[in-house]
Amino acid sequence: MNTKKNITIGLMLLCFQGVFAQFKTTIPLNKNVTTGKLKNGLTYYILHNEEPKDRASFYFVQNVGAILEDDNQNGLAHFLEHMAFNGTEHFKGKGIIKMLEKNGVKFGKDINAYTAQDETVYNISGVPVANQKLIDSTLWVLHDWSGSLSLTNEEIDAERGVIREEWRTRRTSGFRLKMQTDPVLYKGSKYSKRDVIGDLNIINNFKYPELRNYYKKWYRPDLQAVIIVGDIDVKAMEQKIKEIFSGIPLAKKAAARTYEAIPKHDELYFGTAADKEASSTAITLKYVFDEPLVNDTIVSRKNVMNSFYTSILNNRFKELILKNQGSALNLKTYFESISRLNNSFNIVAVAKKGKTIEGFEEAYTEAERLKRFGAVQSELDRTKKLFISSYDDYISNKDKVENDDLADNLTNYFLKAKPFLSPEESYKLVVGIIKSLTLEELNAYAKTIQKPTNQVVLVTGSEDDKANFPTKEAVVNVMKKVESMSLEPYTKKENNAPLIEKQLKPAAIKKTFEVAGIKDAKGYILENDAKIIVLPTTYSQDQIVFSAFSKGGKSLVKTEDLTSAEIATTLARSSGLGNFDNIGLKEKLTGKLAQSAPFISDETQGFQGSSNKADFETMLQLMYLSFEAPRFDPNIFNILKEQYKNRLETIKKDNGSAFKDSIDLANSNHNPRTFLFDDKFLETIDLKKAENIYRDRIKNAADFTFIFVGNIPESGLELIQKYVGNLKSNPVQKENFIDHHIEPKKGKTVVHFKRPMEVPKTTVYLNLTGKTEYSKENAMTIYIIGELLSKRFLQTIREEEGGSYGVSVGGNLEQIPAPAFSLALTFDCNPDKQEKLMQIVWKELNDLKTVPVNANDLEDIKKALLKNREESLKTNSFWNNTLYNNSLNEIPFLQDEEYKNLISKINQKTIQQFSKHVLDSSSSVEVIMNPENTSGK
Q1: What is the b/e burial string over 315-343, where b = at least 16 CB atoms within 10 angstroms of the residue's CB?
Q2: Which of 34, 185, 210, 780, by CA, is between 20 and 30 Å from 370?
Q3: Three-class secondary structure of residue 920 per DSSP
Q4: DSSP secondary structure string, 129-160?
């Protein structure tokens, strides 16, 4: 749980001295931010930050979104966002993307944008600051976005097809349910008719001047902000902003930027929504309230109490679920913004089939209990400890807050006046509030959250379950019943036992070893033959990343027991550890920033974990208990089984699941070891088998390698010796994985099938796979081939054909269980275009053998790889993953010069040669899912 982020989001509400009259705050802007407003009304914010080093993020923020569209413009705000990448005054055609990608700044990853109801935000992130020409060009991109888009007829028409396919891709079950419930939630408001992507009829047919008029009316400097955060000279950047942006004119008769209100109502609004592909039935009770217009310390205090309230209620919900004595499968509560002017408090219940109203009653009863009697002192104390420890961690790692996170917060400062404080100021304010918060104050506030007005109840679920949806009358009756019933106050027993009662002594180090290519990493073999690799770093002042592995995994499990293997670690992680059940362990770990989670994959088993310096020992204790004292709670098993059963009720109509199963079966040639989530899975999972598999896989420390990377405390090695060194082991018993040859049949596999769909859509998957020798060069080459195809498909399938919102392509070379390459792609499209698009796919693939790839595209990809490597080298996660993979696969680490040489060796000729090998030696799997009704839009 990112407690600090949750509080900050709740805390940061509205703009210093009112950028817009609707919102004000008495909390001053972080003094390290340089800000100003040009004569034309454009606002700018500049902040020096060095995470990552030598990089900067550029954001262009519009206080304009879909809510400002007229009914005949529905979708134009989002359409305009797309057009920002299709030609401007200084960057013709795809000039913006071409210019940035030549410098390693990648479209999609670093260059992106989004449109919402009330704002449109563009970002160019990870820009290398050493290249002054690139910095200037990036500023001119932002300048052109302000008022100099080309908006040519040809580009507008080309983009219609892209938007159509985005519309098709985004019409998921969840989206369709939301379209049914929005008219209830937003009754009487324009929000009920603005889904951002818009009306397809308008997208297909609007006249060119309509888009240009919308652009001219709303894209203007008084509604815009330039935000730049990074490793920059702030004064020099401010001067450039003044020079480049001051000349943008402001219209003399600018339209007023108004804000849409959601009408108040005394009556409880009630709505239902059903969809054939919905995965579960849920009931949500919303209490809608106004966002405060002035944010001060009083509002800050309320936001902290909101976070405390939901944290405590969610913990009670979890306890209730884990008793497994009621109708609910999942209960949760949260606060959520629903418009620029409105927020909501939410209570959600997902119940067993046919038990929705009973599940809702359980949720509402616990909320009423908390409202009526309040929290108990131990709950308040635990929540304080949790939140303060999260803020302590935040302040310890204040220099590792990334540019994009800070730019996002400044975006909210500009749009909604959410206060933007320095880490020290934020800590002082919030922790000060937390420490002074009393039980009496919190409990008094809890009585004010659920009000009798502006209530909305929404029931969503599967068409098959529609007959079981509760009525408005039933919901109202349950609420009245609970409010009038006699309830007992909440009570809780504490478990004050230590995590580990056994007294452990550090085990001796048998010998040390060097780690090939990484001189700062040290290797140790302990008395129990456990292998340890430690890499001390200072990339983050207070972070340690941990992983461990041994070979074997599910490959050593009998085929008939694989279903139980699938749930083994989920069951163990959910059951607690040692003397502590699930809830007891969570309470014991309150305030600790440590985690350690076991996994069992196809060929390996091991752990992933992390901690700060202070809780490094706690992380090791959790790992120790996962080896020596795991728990397998029958009650947890029954809860999991009930949840799986509930999911299976609807999964047969889930097109995504049907598509995934078809792919998995084709890629394995229907191997009996292929995992499918189906009725057989539910019938064959077994508690005892799951426990036995876990204990058989997570054992024998002598067969494991343990890797620790980060700012490890001075006592770190001794603690590792204490906990890892005391794990049971059998040095003579070494295991390896078994290669079950799970692969497609030789030649071509074609699976085409039809499914009923609410929105006609074809989904395509193609995978070319085969054996090849493993080498760093081959691995890099197949990856680059995937990137090259991504660029080509962006041009041919998305831009030229308007055939798909995007084609996802990935090239990989795996070593385990045997060296094999995979070149896979997937995309959604109009059923009527599927055949033509597949012809394009195969043409692009075959061209790789005979036509040299575009030299500029290849160079752009190589620059992006070098840029990404430079950034990754400064993170603990990179080094942990590198040590893990290199140790597992027994391959050396490439130094910077070796990596650059590897990249430089890859050229048009080597790409062509390896492409020929891939295409000539591979087996192919083609899976295409079409709608039963092929009439697309």
Answers
A1: bbbbebbbebebbbbbbbbebeebbbbbb
A2: 185
A3: helix
A4: TT-HHHHHHHHHHHHHHHH-B---HHHHHHHH
Q: If 0-12 CB within 10 Å is exposed, 13-18 middle and 19+ buried, where does residue 197 land?
A: buried
3-state helix, strand, coil in the chain (%, to 5): 45, 20, 35
Spatial neighbors of 132 by CB under 8 A, at least 6 apart, are: none
pLDDT band at 493 (very low <50, low <70, confident <90, very high): confident
- How far is the C-alpha of 569 from the C-alpha of 575, rounded, in Å? 10
Q: Which two tokens stand for residue 649?
A: 């009720």
Name the one residue in this structure whose structure tokens are 């500023």.
139
Q: Cα separation of 227 and 60, whole Å?
A: 6
- Dmax (CA) for the chain in angstroms is 84
Q: What is the pLDDT of residue 519?
A: 93
As a whole number of angstroms, the distance between CA 765 and CA 807 comes to 10
Over residues 54-102, the pLDDT tens digits come to 999 999 999 999 999 999 999 999 999 999 999 999 999 999 999 999 9
**Among candidate residues 200, 208, 112, the one with its CA nearest the CA of residue 163:** 200
Q: How many CB atoms lie within 10 A of CB 108?
A: 10
In residues, how long is the chain?
937
Name which of 115, 113, 112 is nearest 67 in CA terms. 115
Q: What is the DSSP annotation of 726-756?
A: TS---TT-----------PPSSEEEEEEEE-
Residue 529 backbone phi and psi in degrees, to 5: 75, 10
Q: How many CB atoms lie within 10 A of CB 591?
A: 18
Mean pLDDT of the chain: 95
Can you read off the two tokens belonging to residue 544? 């340690």
Query: Cis bond leading into 756, ω under 30°?
Result: no
Q: Cis link prior to 817 (omega < 30° from 0)?
A: yes
The answer to whether the beta carbons of residues 221 and 248 sit under 8 Å apart is yes
C-alpha triplet 347, 350, 353: angle, nearest 5°: 150
Question: For 527-549, b where at least 16 C-beta lie within 10 A, e where not — what string?
Answer: ebbbbbbbbbbebbebbbbbbbb
Instruction: State the alpha helices, DSSP H only, in 462-613.
Output: 472-484, 562-575, 582-588
Tokens at residue 658, please?
A: 């049907």
Burial 118-152 (b: 16+ CB within 10 A, else e): bbbbbbbbbbbbeeeebbebbbbbbbbbbbbbbbe
How many C-alpha atoms does 819 have within 13 Å on its Cβ side? 10
CA torsion 127-130-134-138 (nearest 10°) is: 50
Quote the tokens at residue 66. Answer: 């879909």
Q: What pLDDT does residue 649 have?
A: 84
- pLDDT, residue 544, reads 98
Q: Is the dihedral of CA 910, 911, 914, 917 positive or negative?
A: negative
Whether the CB-CB separation of 156 and 215 falls below 8 Å is answered with no
| Structure tokens given for 237 | 């950047």
C-alpha–C-alpha distance, residues 676 and 678, integer Å: 6
How far is it, in rounded angstroms, from Cα 849 to Cα 408? 44
**Radius of gyration, alpha carbons of the chain:** 29
- State in Å, rounded, how far the first CA of the chain is from the last one: 42
Closest by alpha carbon to 279, among 173, 179, 357, 175? Answer: 173
Residues whose CB is less than 8 angstroms from the CB of residue 677 and which lie 6 or more positions away in sequence, other chains included: 644, 647, 648, 651, 657, 661
**Pair of tokens at residue 187:** 């009754």
| CA distances to 82, 83, 771, 806 from 157, in Å | 12, 11, 44, 17
Q: Residue 708 corresponds to which amino acid?
A: F
Q: pTM of the full predicted structure?
A: 0.94
For the purposes of burial, counting CB atoms within 10 Å of the CB of 253, is it exposed (0-12), middle (13-18) or buried (19 or more)? exposed
The confidence band for 935, taking pLDDT boundaries of 50, 70 and 90, is low
Q: How many CA atoms lie within 13 A of 471 on its CB side?
A: 3
Distance CA 926, CA 918 (A): 16
